Every structure is written in C-alpha cells, then in structure tokens.
Inverse folding.
C-alpha cells in the first residue's frame, strides 16, 4: 500500500474555548505538532508503527502540558499514579502498566513489558521492580509533579466537585508495511481515588490494535469506556458488522454517551482513514498522513496545521 | 421467560486424569456441587443473577481447593496476589480489583467497588484501603496461603519450568427476570512475576455480561485472553455476527489457541443455553438449570451430577 500516517490525542474534555488562554492553547498546539512530526519521521523512514506510537507519546509525556508522564494530574492523596498500554496490530502482542509512581515514561515501560516479560500487564510496585530490572531509571514522585497540577487538586478538593479534568494522551499509527499499532498514557482523573485504574492501560477498553481492522486510543471518563469495551468494540464492529472506521468509532462513543459518559477517541484503519469522534467540548487532536493531509485541532472547528 | 440457571468453572488446565487423586477429584466435585447449589438457591427464590454469581464464587474462594481466595497459588516471591471482577448484564456496571494481598473474598470486594465507589477498577494498596473503609476485615497474607501451594511454588522454582498450574474460578448466571451477570476470581499463575495481572479482573478479557447477548467467565493463560479480548469478543460475535452462544464461545477459544494459549470459558445466554469450551486436558465445570438439567465435569467425558 505504501500509505502511512498517524493520529494523536492529548485528551478530551477540555474546558470552554474562552477558558483556555491563548498562550496555553498555542503551547499545546505546538507540542501536538512536535509529537506528530516525531512519530511521522519514524514512519517516513520506514520504521514500524509501534515505534512511531512510542516516539509520539514520549514527546507528550515529557511535555509537562498534558495529563501523562511528567505533569500528570494528582490523585486524592496528592500523588501521581500513571498508567499506559501499547499494542501491536501485527501480532496482537500488548504491554500494559498501571499504578506507577516512579517511572517517567510509562509508554516505554509498557513496551518493555511487551518485549521483555512473559506477561501483558504489570501493576504498582511489581511493575516498578521490573522497570528497575530492565534498566529504567526510577524517579521520585515529586519529579513528575507540576505546580499547576498541585493547584488544580487543591481547587477541586476545595470545591468538592467530582473529578473534573480529563486528559490522557494517545496515538495510533499505520506504517509503510501496512502494520497498525496504538498506545495510550495517562495520569488518570484529577483527585481520583488511590489505586483507581481507568481504561487507558486496559487492552480492549482504552487501547486496541489489530491489522485486520484498526488501531485506536481513547480518552475521557474511563469507567464508561471499560464497561462497553470501547476500543475492542470499534474493531469488532468493523470486523463482524462490516462498519467503516468512522461509523464504528462514532458507535462506540455513542454507547459511552448512552451510559452517561464523556470522552473521545482517535483511530486509524489499514487504509489510512482517520476518525476522531468525541462528545466533549473539545479534544486535543492531530494527524498527519503521507498523502500530505494533516490537522491540528482542539475544539469543534478544525484548525488547519500551521 | 422464567428460565434460570448458572454455570461455574474451577479452572482449566488440570493435569492428566491419572495425576489427579480420586480423593482430590471427589473433593473438588463436591465443592463444585456446593457452589452451584448455593448460587442456584439464590436464583430459585427469585434473587438477582449478580447475587447468585457472588454466592457461588464465594463458596469456591473459601474452599481452599481452587486457585482463588484462600488457597490461591503464590507469586514468585511467595505471596498470594488476588484479582477478581464482577459484571452486571442489565446495566453494564462492573467492579474489578487486582493485586490484593489482604482480602479474603476478592469477588465481594469487586462488588463493593461496583456498588460503593465511583470507579470500576481499584488495585493494590488503594483497593485495600477502600476495602477497609467499606468494612471488609483485612487478613494477613499467611491466612490465604496453604501448605499445598507453598510446596507447588517450591517445586516449580526448583524445576525451573514456566508457570504451570492454571486455575481461577468463575460463574455466569441467568435469573428469573432474564438478567445476566458474570464474575471471576483468581490467584493468577503459580510463580508469576510480582504485580502480574491476568485476564480475570479485566472487563472484556476474562469477564463480561450483557443482557443483549450472554454472561461469561474465562480461565487459562490470561495473557492470550487479554490480547483477543476474549470475553467481549464472545458477546460481539453474538451481537454483530449473529452467532449462537456455543459457536461464539468456541470461536474465542480458537483465537486464544491460534496465538498459542491454553484455557477455557463458561458462558450462559439469555435463553439459558450454556457453553463450556476449553482446549486444555480438562476444566473443572458445572451447571444447573431450572429445566432440571445439570452437569459436573472435569475431563472431556461429562460426569453426570451425583
């Protein structure tokens, strides 16, 4: 086929356009572009989708702007607890980590679980002990925290509202060989209960990839995405019901909405089609493809790439 | 409809018939019957499927015979780490717990997560802190351990073989109101890596229930069941492709097998049909239905209920 490309998100559920400062918006847009370009470079030189996904997500994890890696939201006890998953559409191999407190790049650890362990999912202290064994530097939780997130937690605790800010970052890619891969990384919900795991690290809920159908990553109120197995559902609707990517992706978001949930997802199929449905005010998202098409957008109206 | 019934498993992957002592076989059979009768009594008096599932699984968790609750296998560090999930087919609500070391009945805690938290999944210390808060007595890990499992771990560590014994217990039920529910509880793999989570507590992988299709619980090499989203796949094959329960259940096990995985699952649909496919030497399993039909079996040939 030769066509290649990738699509990313930096979280759904952003506040109203007027509540986002022009500077914040600019910084996030620039980081989305950097992430998509980083992943695209991997694909363009013939690299595997899996590597492009990890490269793009790593940029977002390191940015301190999104709710993943450094700069993640804090749980109710003021601690960053990070989750991630990665899946290879060729082999259906997957790696998943949850409840990390001392790992800077959860997506890289998810890859190590996939490549270097006999397991798919490792959690908490056991996952971090594995990280140490395969050579990941462990950081203090303070190194993951930012002043902005500490303030957000204080505000939410004071207001007594339920966890508000959503977030999460994710990527789905199609490489020159026609292989698909997807990954997701998150700090979960602001003010979440200690030990809470959402859909992001769960294969079939927040992340799925299958060369027969598509690759995708979800974002939003994870509990709803888990209950409908949103990520696998998109794949199943394509494989068993013959739906196209866009229709299948929208159907999954509709199911989440029917249960009362908010969120969105980004997906790419084996022909390079892209879908990015969401039922929130906005979703940070971007894509870039080998046919020259690209997009960077936050709210409903698409904002063409600079 | 009025028809009701339930199906349970006590794990797939048992050793060859001649390696199971007649006493052990008898004890396991008796416990399966007790579990199925306990769950059936709930259904027969008009109780909800969800309650029947928890009741049946609790009997197996407390038996010290199966790999769930008390008497679970030990991880590579000689510690019991328990996982469970529960799902309600009416509302698609679910509760999931993983990495527990101090909770005697993980299935009951999964129910509490579903009923009393805003989340679907809680892991490790956070899950146990929640357990304490909602009134669960916490036990020492020693209280969960049995001499037999300590010996099994020593034997496996000595032989250097990969984790062998499978296990897990699960139940799927249809109540008089036509509602479905499913649950799974496990100690995971003998000699597993610290922090490893298999398919059992993952909604859509080892456990799923949807009134529109079926309720089911899987057992076996969880990594493979996660990668194909086995539990949700059965439901999707029925809903989107129009397969019957038996055909859909078999298709999911075939996918697991194609990747090289071993295991089985038990399922019941909204008409009370039961499926129990497995690709291992045996699977501890039993069912009982309101039409008077019942079965208790371990190996391939069905062993009629006593």
């Amino acid at each position: 086929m030769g066509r290649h490309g990738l699509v990313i998100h930096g979280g759904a559920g952003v506040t109203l356009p007027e509540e986002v400062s022009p500077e914040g918006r600019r910084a996030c847009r620039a980081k989305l572009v950097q992430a998509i370009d980083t992943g695209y470079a991997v694909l363009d030189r013939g690299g595997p989708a899996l590597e492009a996904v990890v490269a793009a997500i790593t940029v977002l994890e390191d940015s301190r702007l999104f709710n993943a890696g450094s700069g993640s939201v804090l749980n109710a006890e003021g601690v960053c607890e990070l989750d991630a998953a990665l899946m290879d559409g060729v082999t259906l191999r997957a790696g998943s980590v949850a409840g990390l407190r001392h790992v800077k790049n959860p997506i890289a650890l998810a890859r190590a679980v996939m490549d270097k362990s006999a397991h798919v999912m490792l959690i908490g202290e056991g996952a971090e002990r594995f990280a140490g064994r395969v050579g990941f530097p462990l950081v203090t939780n303070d190194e993951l925290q930012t002043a902005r997130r500490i303030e957000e937690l204080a505000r939410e605790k004071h207001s007594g509202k339920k966890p508000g800010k959503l977030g999460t970052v994710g990527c789905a890619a199609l490489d020159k060989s026609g292989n698909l891969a997807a990954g997701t990384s998150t700090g979960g919900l602001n003010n979440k209960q200690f030990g809470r795991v959402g859909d992001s690290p769960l294969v079939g809920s927040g992340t799925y990839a299958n060369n027969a159908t598509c690759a995708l990553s979800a974002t939003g109120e994870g509990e709803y995405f888990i209950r409908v197995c949103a990520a696998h559902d998109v794949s199943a609707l394509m494989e068993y019901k013959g739906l196209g990517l866009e229709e299948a992706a929208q159907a999954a978001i509709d199911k989440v909405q029917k249960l009362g949930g908010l969120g969105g997802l980004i997906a790419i199929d084996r022909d390079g089609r892209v879908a990015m449905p969401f039922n929130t005010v906005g979703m940070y998202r971007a894509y870039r493809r080998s046919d020259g098409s690209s997009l960077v957008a936050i709210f409903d109206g698409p904002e063409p790439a600079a």
Observations:
- Residues 6 and 222 of chain B are 23 Å apart (CA to CA).
- Chain B has one domain: 5-90+145-299.
- Chain B touches chain A through 46 residues (CB under 8 Å).
